[in-house]
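[Automated response] Your request has been received and processed.

Submitted sequence:
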Amino acid sequence: MEDHILTVGLPSGSLMEPTVSLFAKAGYAISGANRSYRPTVDDPEMRIRLLRAQEISRYVEHGYLDCGITGRDWVEENESDIHEVTSLAYSKVSSNPTRWVLVVPDDSPIRTVKDLEGKRVATEAVGITKRFFERAGVQAEIEFSWGATEVKVPDLVDAIVDITETGSSLRANKLRIVDTLMESYPALFAAHSAWKNPWKREKIEKLSLLLKGALAARDLVGLKMNLPEKSLKNLLEALPALRNPTVSPLAQPGWVAIETVIEEKVVREIVPQLKMLGAEGIIEYPLNKVVY
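Generated structure:
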């Protein structure tokens, strides 16, 4: 790979949209992701490749990608030897981790993994599942599922191991979770060769910093207002959610400007209180990044 081009693998499929949005918040505009596996990005030193999340860790390990975002689950599934740069706590519909779970029908007599001795289990994550059963001391037939795993139980197999974020699809299909094999978030991973390259490592570390800043800002907003200086003490005592705001004097004597960062869900509760305490010119604004 070129020494001064960073090739980045991003997941296609359900994680593509939240990943592209995260990059936009971090300051990288990716275009063409819905039409091409080689979208463009407004950084001449970066090249984007869209791939299945299941494959990214392998291509990073072999150096075809300098770095990539994929779930820890697929790194474990592929047993890839790569460097984890940072965890990125997001998923397709929430900030919750995805879970690989052992699932049976609601009316199945199976209650624990021990009850699956000699039974058949279908899953896309064969490696993770086999190692889970080995640790449990249970011998079961683990078969690869090409998709639509939920419909295979109980007619074709006795249980499945599937991925879920909220569990709603499992409940809709009248399935019951027996055990959780692992939880997983996406993370930014780097090839060892890229991590040893000073230029690429610095580029990856900058990318990591900006992505983490974008995630940190996800549930936060900025809030600014003007307030009579005599009311400042009462306001801070009444609203601990304001933490340690920046307070600056205004040109008008006896007034101060206040600016702070708070959770977006708190704003609707405190704005009426701020008004009652004498605040004026209250402005709420979105944040793209918060870098600690």
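Summary generated for your ticket: The first helix runs from residue 16 to 26. The chain has a mean pLDDT of 93.
If you did not submit this request, please reply to this message.
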